[in-house]
Amino acid sequence: MSFRLLVAAAAARRVGPHAAASAPRRHSVLTTKRGFGFTTPRQGGQTLVEKIAQQHAVGLSEGELVRSGDFIGIRPRHIMTHDNTGAVIPKFTSIGATRLADPKQPVFALDHDIQNKGEKNIAKYHSIERFSKLHGNQFYPAGRGIAHQVLVEEGHAWPGTMVVGSDSHSNMYGGIGCLGTPVVRTDAAAIWATSQTWWQAPPVAKVELRGQLPAGVVGKDVIVALCGLFSKDEVLNHAVEFVGEGTRSLVVEDRLAIANMTTEWGALAGLFAVDETTMQWYEARARHIAEKSSNGLHPIVNADAVAALRRSVESDPARWRPDEDAVYAKHIWLDLGSLTPHISGPDTVKTATPLADLEHKKIAIHKAYIVSCVNSRAKDLREAANVIRAIKQARPDHTVKAADGVSWYVAAASSQVQAEAQASGDWQVLVDAGAKTLPPGCGPCIGLGVGLLEDGEVGISATNRNYKGRMGSKKAHTYLASPAVVSASAIEGYICSPETAIAKANAKSVLPESAPRRVSFGFEHATPTLKTDSNGNGAAATAATGSAIDGFPELLSGRIVFLPADNLNTDGIYPGKYTYQDDITRDQMKQIVMENYDPEFSKLVQNEDIVVAGANFGTGSSREQAATALLAAGVRLVICESASETFKRNAVNNGLLVLESPPLVKWLRDRYQKPDAASTIITGLNARVELTAGKLSLANDAENNEYTGSIPRIGRAAQEIIVAGGLENWVRNRMLASA
Description:
The protein is of the alpha/beta class. The chain has a 7-stranded mixed beta sheet, with helices on both faces.
């Protein structure tokens, strides 16, 4: 029996006879379009990411350690959804769920479209609140703040835990030592129904921060510089761990900003270890909450909880740090002492320019923004306000206002932040300088509400994304900067430094020139040299071999079909013109799969083939038919240099395994990729894939072995989903088992 038929039979057996008569309903998923490869050996100690994932993993064998590349089941501390809760609810009900598996786990926080007072949006918000009241989970209404900020303030994102969110900026929780990572809406529904979903532990990059930030340089400058200096997808779909002496000099607010924008850098998580800075921040926050509270102790962020956290950090330091011999995919370093204020853009985070090199161009701006989850905390608003104060001090008789023709918008990250800024006077300073205030929410950062960029305009923003059209018109241009630089630029009407704005107030038109400072950065060898096989693969054999559940094959074999192209997108796999034709059968899918890439593919592919492809496979739209069409063609496994995270989750959620093996792809390229090579190459090689052991070998028709390497091991969580025929069937099985 083929693997595809095995999966279908297993799904019918587990879900029941009625389900076998019709195909399960499928849902598309939305997330960032990224891929990554796993080349890290399975020897050595664990990274901090792996340790935290270990604490939230379910179904591991005794003594089994979580490693990068492993498919594991996870039970996160919390699952956050925001306005998209309205889209998750029908997914939840469509799989037959009627109650939350753990009402303490989901957190709803409405934050995206809060300026929209239209009847439809208000009705959606009311329906989300009713659902929450019915099921008893935590709910924060519109106006409380941006979800990520609220989760940190309220202690839902907590040091040493894993929290997932149906939003790409869930990385931000890493600023307080919480492993935050995004999941898609189907995963959110699965967690609501079962408290679990699957996760493939990503490769981990160590980012060493050396030295200390000079005065006037902040966390935003760090991450903007990193995005520009390492702009070739160096951390694409990695988790990033920030280490080194430089981390100790960063306040928590700067760490949150850096972790937040690891998303734009391409990472799936950005994590700082808990240290004395973290502890002092929590102790101060617990005192602040206690002083302001009229309802007694906060249920999470209170003196007792923070004291217990400190005891754990001090008594068991190994739990809170990566192992000394932790294995990293790569090691990047940046000298903070060499850094100056940086500007991102225009229109891409991959371009970062020292402010000193840019401001002499006097780039005129039309709009300025201090909004969003990356840079609208109290510290940020204070730094922006201090620029205004310094200008006033330099010229007391001068009214400091935003320049003519500049519209300036400010929104706090949360209602608590706004209250703090109002109490300190920072809020009023900004208002008096002409800033237009918006409610605490996402707003213009995601192109919603008032103040959006119009055709031909230029904006400077303390937000995290400057993609074309993100904050309004595609014919506008957006630069990213720190709040202080945004404040100075709003006053002067062009992109400039606070020092320039203050000097002009002192009637100094030109600042003394300083010697240009060169940013110091680079790569180190990621890990000690470990044992590898003849093809450069890490020694997966040294790790404990997992076991297969009933119905899951430990071994696959099949022909290798090589597609040498990189960036083979979902339109190439399944043409967009068919996407919304709901009556296309599986046989028809088989005929049109890869039509836009290679019309000959459907004639060449056979049942039980294994497809091997290049980098960033499945990039593009989130259409799940790209995965189901390959299944319809009989493909039983896809191995690629790297895969779009969207495609991977779509594939596994529909019962198709996608694995990464850069060494295998390189070996095949060296052997088969010639100038006149076909788009679809029938290699004549047969693969033997040991899914639970993480081993792969290729043999020719004479059965002579030609290649041996390693692949990510398939853990119990992914096995169960594959055998069930997809995530939705897996959820139904779990609910039936617990009924």
